[in-house]
Write a structure and sequence with these properties.
seven-stranded mixed beta sheet; Rossmann fold; 7 strands; alpha/beta
């Protein structure tokens, strides 16, 4: 086991308790053949803590997969709060819908199926927190909609924004890397945002998260 993986396992053992609901969601996604690319337990806990700290009542997630991160986010909602999560793949959306229902969030969480750029125009904001974890070349377009659907004080979080360090390579032929580079450039140039990126290591490899606060 790599040291970073061992450290992740140690820290998760301390700060994320055994959780039958989340374990069942992961098992259901695996049984359905979904790719195992969801956030780690520590990252899910981070999303939960951010939403709690903000007192977020309305959360938008772009990229649902099997609903693992959606459950973490939904757990942070107060009574009467709402989570809308967007998923392009109908099979993934069905698994996520079942997982959210099993977790007790069928009333608070809604899975909308279809390409995010097609479903985003139908949403009504503002959202307090937006979590982007979908196709990487689509991130620039998702940022534009995130800005339209948030307000001053909202937070936009994006996952997988370091790509094992490849994001530093301007000549990368990978469209995912180029999509993330465009995302970073747009965030950096946007006067309505104050942002930073934190690199991460562990069971998810070398990657990172972007945090952009809407300040104007």
């Amino acid at each position: 086991m790599r040291k970073a993986d061992a450290a992740d396992a140690y820290l998760e053992g301390l700060f994320t308790s055994p959780d039958r609901v989340l374990d069942a969601a992961l098992a259901a996604a695996k049984a359905a053949g979904l790719p195992e690319i969801q956030v780690s337990a520590s990252q899910g806990k981070l999303l939960y803590l951010l939403a709690r700290l903000m007192g977020a009542r309305s959360i938008l997630e772009i990229g649902t997969l099997g609903g693992y991160s959606a459950i973490w986010l939904a757990r942070a909602l107060p009574a009467g709060g709402r989570l809308v999560t967007l998923e392009a793949d109908t099979k993934h959306a069905a698994v996520a819908t079942a997982n959210l229902a099993a977790a007790g969030f069928s009333g608070a969480a809604e899975v909308r199926t279809g390409r995010a750029l097609d479903t985003l125009p139908s949403l009504e904001g503002p959202f307090d927190l937006v979590f982007i974890d979908a196709d990487k070349d689509g991130y620039p377009g998702y940022l534009g909609w995130a800005l339209k659907l948030t307000r001053k004080g909202s937070l936009i979080v994006a996952d997988n924004v370091v790509r094992g360090g490849a994001v530093a390579d301007a000549a990368s032929p990978d469209p995912r890397v180029q999509g993330i580079r465009r995302y970073h450039a747009l965030v950096a140039a946007e006067p309505r945002l104050s942002a930073t990126v934190l690199q991460t290591v562990g069971v998810k490899g070398h990657d990172g998260l972007s945090f952009a606060l809407v300040v104007g």
